[in-house]
Each structure stands twice: as structure tokens, then as C-alpha cells.
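Notebook entry, structure prediction.
Reason for the run: the old model in the group folder had no record of what sequence produced it. Starting over properly, with the input documented here first.
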Amino acid sequence: MIRAEITNFESINHAVLEIDGFTTVQGPNYSGKSAAMRAINAALSNQAGTDFISWGKTFCEVRLVSKDLDLLWHKEDGNNFYIINNKRYDKIGRDEPPSQLNVLGYGTIKINDQRHNLYYAEQFNSLFLVDGQTLKNADLVAAVYGLDRLYKAAELCSKDQRSVDTLFKIRGKDLEDVNSDLKKFDDLDNVVTAGKRLNEQAASIESQEKSIEKAEAWSDTIAQMVVECNRLKPSLSVAVPNIEDLRERITKASKIGTLCDAMDALSGVAAHLAPVESVSVPTAEDLSSKANECLKLSDLLLRLESAENDVQRLSACGSVLVLGDGDLSSISQGISRLEFLEKSVSGIVFMKQDLDVLTKSTTESSSELVAVETELATFDVCPLCGGKRGQGCEPAAS
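New structure, fully documented this time:
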């Protein structure tokens, strides 16, 4: 007995068939009878393609179980495998089942580019489905039908053999034609040798042509050099100055340039300092006397301020006997004089500060004049008047 379980094959979502001996499958049209038979054949022959997978499904499976066989055939796009007696087979040839089926007696044979299963007959044949039956008459029918198919296979093989023989004769004739054509190339070695010799000669000629081109280029270069030499001949009569004289003149010119730059800078400084000559600088004795007067006035102012404070402090005393009005007016006049003296002292102090600043400026101007005089001593020409130094030149009045 063979138990067949079919999933997602053509119109069959899921079906189970049990084939025991000579079994007849019946049912209305389009109920899946032929699809079930095709599913069994597809599992035994590893049918190529995926068109038989049910619409909307991604895979189909057929499982066949008998006394000595437990086969699961799984088919989907990019994934095809067998599980035969708990052993998995992934690497399977196209349209070719695993060889293990041949060992178990369920293999197929290929006749005239078509694969046939001796245990399965196509639909509408005289014998529809033949399995390892237990009934004697079914075995006999299966053997006779199988023998008939073997005869047909042998006939097809003979036909293929005749075709092969015919093709062999054609290919033999083609081989004779090729051998005849090859005889035309018997002298090919000599031709190849001559060709190599010609190639060597061509290479030698090419090398000589390159040498000739180089010689022509050299000749053109020499002719151009002759023309240039003739053009440069007049330059031989040009008087070239002595190198030492040139160096001496260049040194003098550089010194003159440096001197001119220094004189330009000094003339600017002298023009900037020219107004200083008209400034009247007070003497040290005058400054000293003014400073002493300022000190005396400052001391007097301090004394007056102290006296004013004492008067204000004493005026607050009610028990003090004040003399006549004339004495009070004299005190007011003294206070007014003290205020005037205070203002005078302040002005004298500011004058002293101005004198100190002026003295400092005068000292700096004197230092700058000494520096200018020192720099002028290094030159022979005065930057102010343009005359010789030491000839009584006077600076221009500002």
C-alpha cells in the first residue's frame, strides 16, 4: 500500500490518497483526480518549474509512504529538497530526482530527452497507475505493460542510434574535408619562419629610420646654431666694463642711496623740531624763586585756614565778649583777604605745575637737539640749508 499526501498542488489544497493494489480513483470533473496523479508523478520525477503551485501559495509538498519508502518532496521558488527515509537531499539536479530513488526501485529512465517512470503511466493510457501490488494479476499486467514500454524504449534507442550513425558519417566526411584543408598548410612552418625573418628586417629598418630622423634633427639644430652664431658675432666688439669697477660703483651708489634716505629722515626731524628754537626757556634761578614764593604762600594759606577755623569755632561760644563793630568788619576783611590769598596760592600752584611740564619738555627738546647735532656731525651737508657743515648756516625762522 502507498499513502499519498498532497498539499498546494494545482487545484488541491490538501488531499490524502491510499493506493492499495489496483486502485480506481473516481469523481466529478475538475475535482482534482488528474491533479493528484500529476502530483505523484512530479514527486517521483522532480518536475521542473513552479507553475503547478496553487494560486496564492508559495510552496507545494507531496509525501509518499509505503513499506520501504518514506518520501517528502518540497518545491518552492529557490528552495527544492527531498527527504527520503529521514535523509535530506538539497543539491538536486534540474528535472532529476535523487539517485536514492533508483536504489529503492522508484527511479526513472530518460528516453529521447523525456523521463519516464516505469511504475507510473500517463493519464488515458491503457494502464493508469501501477504500484508494487500484491495481486498476481496486477503484477502480470504491470510486468507486461512495463515490458511493452521497454520495447518502445529499445525502439527509440535504435532510432537514436541510427541518427547517431548518420551524424557520425557526416562528421567523418567533415573530418576528411578538414584534413584536406590542413594539407594546404604543410608549408606553414616555413611561412612562419619567413614571416619572423621579415618582422626582424622590418624592425631593423624601423630602427634605421629612427636613426636617420635623429640625424636630420641634429642637422637642423646645427644649422640653427650657425645662424645664431652669425647673428651674435657683432657682440664680440662690445666693450665690457671691468668687474671690479662695476662693483666699486655699485658700492658707492648703494652708500649714496643710504645717505639720501638718512638725510630725508633727518630733514623731516629737523623740520619738526624747528619751532623749538623760538621757545623762551626760563632760567633755573627764576624757577627756584617762584617755587619758594609758592611755598611761602601755601604756608600762609594753611595758617589762614587754621585761623578761620578757630574763629568759626570761637564764634559759636555765646559767653565770649565781642568788641565793637569795627573789630568785626576788620575780621571780615581779613577773611576776604584770606580767600583772595587762597585763590592766588591755587593759581601759583597751577603755574608751578605748568612750569614743571615746560621744563620737562625743554629738557626733552634739548636732548633731541643734541641727538640731531650728533647725527648731523656724520654728514658733510646740512639738511636745513644745504651748505657745508660749519660754515655758519642758520636754521630758518619758524
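Summary: Residues 125-138 have pLDDT under 50 and may be disordered.
The old model has been moved to the deprecated folder.
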